[in-house]
Amino acid sequence: MARKISMKQAINEALDLEMTRDPSVIVMGEDIVGGTGSPGEDDAWGGVLGVTKGLHAKHGNRLMDTPLSESAYIGAAIGAATCGLRPVAELMFIDFMGVCFDQIFNQAAKFRYMFGGKAETPVVIRAMVGAGFRAAAQHSQMLTPIFTHIPGVKVVCPSNAYDAKGLLIQSIRDNDPVIFCEHKNLYGLECDVPAESYAIPFGEANVLRDGGDVTIVSYGLTVHRAMEAAEALAKDKVEAEVIDLRTLSPIDWDTVIDSVERTGRLVVVDEAHPRCSIASDVAAFVGQNAFGALKAGVQMVTAPHVPVPFSPVLEDLYIPNAAAIADAARRTLAPTGTSPRSIAA
Amino acid sequence: MARKISMKQAINEALDLEMTRDPSVIVMGEDIVGGTGSPGEDDAWGGVLGVTKGLHAKHGNRLMDTPLSESAYIGAAIGAATCGLRPVAELMFIDFMGVCFDQIFNQAAKFRYMFGGKAETPVVIRAMVGAGFRAAAQHSQMLTPIFTHIPGVKVVCPSNAYDAKGLLIQSIRDNDPVIFCEHKNLYGLECDVPAESYAIPFGEANVLRDGGDVTIVSYGLTVHRAMEAAEALAKDKVEAEVIDLRTLSPIDWDTVIDSVERTGRLVVVDEAHPRCSIASDVAAFVGQNAFGALKAGVQMVTAPHVPVPFSPVLEDLYIPNAAAIADAARRTLAPTGTSPRSIAA
Amino acid sequence: MTENPFPLDRDDLLKAYRIMRTIREFEERLHIDFAKGDIPGFVHLYAGEEASAAGIMMHLKDNDRIASTHRGHGHCIAKGVDVHEMMAEIYGRSTGACRGKGGSMHIADLSKGMMGANGILGAGAPLACGAALAAKVRGDGGVGISFVGDGASNQGMFLESLNLAAVWNLPAIFVVENNGYAESTARDWAVAVDSYIDRASGFGLPGVTVDGTDFFAVYEAAGEIIRRAREGGGPALLECNMVRFYGHFEGDAQTYRAKGEVEAIRASRDCIKIFAERVIEAGVISRAELEAIDKEVLDLIEDAVRAAKSAPLPAPAELLTDVYVAY
Amino acid sequence: MTENPFPLDRDDLLKAYRIMRTIREFEERLHIDFAKGDIPGFVHLYAGEEASAAGIMMHLKDNDRIASTHRGHGHCIAKGVDVHEMMAEIYGRSTGACRGKGGSMHIADLSKGMMGANGILGAGAPLACGAALAAKVRGDGGVGISFVGDGASNQGMFLESLNLAAVWNLPAIFVVENNGYAESTARDWAVAVDSYIDRASGFGLPGVTVDGTDFFAVYEAAGEIIRRAREGGGPALLECNMVRFYGHFEGDAQTYRAKGEVEAIRASRDCIKIFAERVIEAGVISRAELEAIDKEVLDLIEDAVRAAKSAPLPAPAELLTDVYVAY
Ligand SMILES: Cc1ncc(C[n+]2csc(CCOP(=O)(O)OP(=O)(O)O)c2C)c(N)n1
Ligand SMILES: Cc1ncc(C[n+]2csc(CCOP(=O)(O)OP(=O)(O)O)c2C)c(N)n1
Ligand SMILES: [Mg+2]
Ligand SMILES: [Mg+2]
């Protein structure tokens, strides 16, 4: 039975279902319960934006507030995962990875390989990503390219409530470490979501719109901008195929390549900075592996090579928008050789 | 006056010259003096591989050993830089960035932007990078893509003693934060280096070899593998142009594009993992901005998507080698459309 | 006029009062304007905690540096950052202290020795060590002060810094602003030790705990610690026990607090009221003098808000500037 | 036969001796073979520190977990990791504990409760908290033990873990193996506090300091702490003061040490000699019994080296396997 619920509710529901199903699932993070040790109400916050609200009432001590010590508790989640639990640790904002990255990239990501295949680390690290919240440079980053670069972790970034639920359930059941990226500006977005439990496999992109003229690939918030761009292009009789990657590592190369083999044109949209980004990753892979199919250079539309600004007027310019995406698509349709060099300051 | 000295000596000399010239230059790191508080000789280590050996005798307390607290002392170097010093902090292995990344990417990199242009942070973070030392997964990483992704830091990775000296002097004089990556397997490599002081500007790639058939772009250790590959190719009458990027952020797009516009073919070699790498970055940029010049898909030769293995037999397979580079070059010369999909597990 | 029993002369008492009152009105006004929807982003108010900022900063000059927290407005004002520039920054205007690029969580003014509010907990501690190191290398007698909340006192960066400052014998001071909560979580649960003096001792640092709602207690303890640091006596930790009048951030419903808690602390632990009563009772300052300051402060804040609202927004080109000195 | 004055029966005394002797011979042999150039990479020897590993691990079962350091061979052996597999690992062979992919710094055997040596200082502490958490959630009475050097005791991850373990009341134990040096740097310089008991107190943890060259002192202190943790009494810190017989890593010229220092500690602070003298003197174990063990251990090591050297190298395809369970 599907109802319209928000991405925030979908994530809450996925946690609830998995905690109910599997007693080895525990959930921890700063204020994810809220009010621990404080004199007022229990379950006072349910996370800084209320994503875990209500779960403590149902699952009790399997939800744990933590002291403000990301290395210690993210590391504890990782250590517990190697001992048979399935912890879901919330790193409030992905921007905080700088204080606990060692536990993620040198420990969780490498155990299996360093130990010759003899370890499993089924940990999920949930974190808010993305700009548009007027939260400035240290609370608005995307950072997906950094995690995608690292072998041994998987990287997930849903664009809607349906995917968020199914991908989070898969993340919890998955036997490898997963970085689960939640775009804070999508939390309120509703769509049809079945009440039942379901898992969406990793490495399967979603074709949101068919089209034969140009392929637009993205993930997270900018998927919606890509759809807007596709609608604008349709008015000009340009039919864009829009692909939502959903998981960045593993990534569904087949769907991307198959589409480009039909359209011959590709735009990759990424809310991350341009250098060594998901955009450049996809563009390069396609350029190497489907060069013969390309009728024009792959166009990248990314955030600029600058930190996220605070002022709303600047922040709104920072995030790739539909107009820029449509323009990039049009560039792929123009005679080749005319595209200007474009890497923002 | 040029003499043959090793990259290790060249780095030592650059530090010595700048400390002599500018009293605001201080140098800190774990055991960079060595033996602090210990009963034996002073200046006992000069760094774990002896790079800073002898500098303490000359410059005294402007070289400082630190406790084993990377966030605290790297952060202190950054804080001191905003107060007018020019600290050079050694992060022994770049792999340790996970315990101090916040100070680098959220603090040093963002101050100038967050503060509206009102801060300067002239700090240099020196760190060993790269594989081949049989030092396993946590002491052998490249990680250059992660820093290159971050706006606000500059990233330097010399391939030889001459460049190391000139680029380190530039790094110390530069007014922005610089991540200075020293490939540990190049420390012993000697070349002609003038005794005098000289600075090599950032963003100027070095064309090590001219050739009209294919362009090979790399940096660091794999530049030497690229040169070997070029020699092998020359035997087949294929003339490769070899470009050493030297600095990854800023990066010299002009030299790369100009070369590709002549050769029409590009191989990018990167010791980092493939996803969101320097290789994909360069390939994507060229694919977007010089598509018309390309006669074949840009080929990437990278380390695989796996941690660095310990066993020498595996580690030797891990690092991109000359044969793989030459093969990639040959692929660009084959009829298009035949290149196989290639992203190692 | 009676004799002055305080360690500050009349001018400095008036100055301290003006700082505290300015902080208070700044925050009260933000609280109102945020609720109206005028202000974007995360805003953490310092109301109730003014005596800490004022009591410490009264000892500092521009070459002394402070590294602040996410709750930084009070530190900024006490360290001399321009109130108009602060307000404009919070409104995201190009006349802001950071030209609108930083916002509430990143206000800085290095020319005043204010190294920045900080969105990352604990991050200021290493930076303040760096300021202290620079002062030590230059021998200019400056100090570096890091502010940290009770919650952030569990962050590795902060803990490492205690040891580093002690090992290097830096003129660094760590002020723990203990307001009892980290977001919604109680300090008594999250910090495993009862006394910050013990935590400081664990790193070889002298520690002092004071009632952070008592300006004079803060002022005297800070004075002693700062003097010692300037003279080469090394780092120290100062805990100020204080109260937070508003929620963790604006919009916080605060259901984790006890019923009546906020009313009670506003009534009995308002550091500005306590200060005012003391100086009036001692006969050193008159109520009228304080009220005159109150009025000036209200005008200043009103003027700052008006100016901020009518100030230009950053031009689109500003998006791409100020990333590097040169690139 | 005389009465046994020790807290272990004869079998356990012989077992403890065998563990220590095995570690010692393992390390002595690596020292020789490394100098010959047989062994690749960084190798950090545990020789001289055996009583710590043995004294603690004698209390543990396979469901108790330990997180080790870069100097991990002793912990591995004492926790029951197979010596042949260890040696093969250090030689980079496919028969190694990690199939040659980890090497000296990453030997692990989760089936024995050994969570891995670790190339990142302080990283084991959060992991051991995780093991302790898992034991607590399951209620299986297990403990998680983190080993850390004196140098690494200044790492933020370690310090945060002390607080976390106390706040969550975990069955976690932090063993500081204080051998006086971090690489070449003196502990007394780099750790700002004189006593680790004070550092533990700074996080609300009970701390105990013992002579780490005295097996029985370690054994008794560890036993008490571990028992308490198993019973829900929470975490603790144990400092073992010990000596390092070799350099920081193989190849270290050790000019930072005092003249004669190594000879002196080998003569007077050899934990194995001290143990042997005590048990022989007490008349509980005979010299001949110990010598028999010595011989068996030598044979074991010789056999392990021979097997390692003739074991197959990893096949090229191994480069790409074992990154994910499924991808
Ligand atoms: C490294 C890091 N972790 C978490 C947060 C999210 N966060 C912001 S403020 C806060 C609570 C801080 O409490 P405290 O240090 O006591 O300061 P207070 O807000 O009480 O002034 C948290 C958890 C952050 N900004 N940085
Ligand atoms: C985070 C991190 N920083 C630095 C190093 C480099 N390093 C390896 S061992 C070592 C000294 C460790 O000293 P201690 O903790 O006392 O252990 P010991 O070697 O004496 O057993 C250093 C600095 C590292 N491996 N990890
Ligand atoms: Mg607080
Ligand atoms: Mg040590």
From TrEMBL, chains A, B:
Its EC number is 1.2.4.1. CDD domains: TPP_PYR_E1-PDHc-beta_like. The keyword tRNA processing does not apply. Pfam families: Transket_pyr, Transketolase_C. Keywords: Oxidoreductase, Pyruvate. Residues 5-189 form the Transketolase-like pyrimidine-binding domain. SUPFAM superfamilies: Thiamin diphosphate-binding fold (THDP-binding), TK C-terminal domain-like. It comes from the Bacteria. GO terms for molecular function: pyruvate dehydrogenase (acetyl-transferring) activity. InterPro entries: THDP-binding, Transketo_C/PFOR_II, Transketolase-like_Pyr-bd, Transketolase_C. NCBIfam families: PRK09212.1. This is Pyruvate dehydrogenase E1 component beta subunit.
Automatic annotation (TrEMBL), chains C, D:
Residues 20-316 form the Dehydrogenase E1 component domain. One of its GO terms (molecular function) is pyruvate dehydrogenase (acetyl-transferring) activity. The keyword Transmembrane does not apply. InterPro entries: DH_E1, PDH_E1_Alpha_Subunit, THDP-binding. Keywords: Oxidoreductase, Pyruvate, Thiamine pyrophosphate. The keyword ATP-binding does not apply. This is Pyruvate dehydrogenase E1 component alpha subunit. It comes from Azospirillum rugosum.
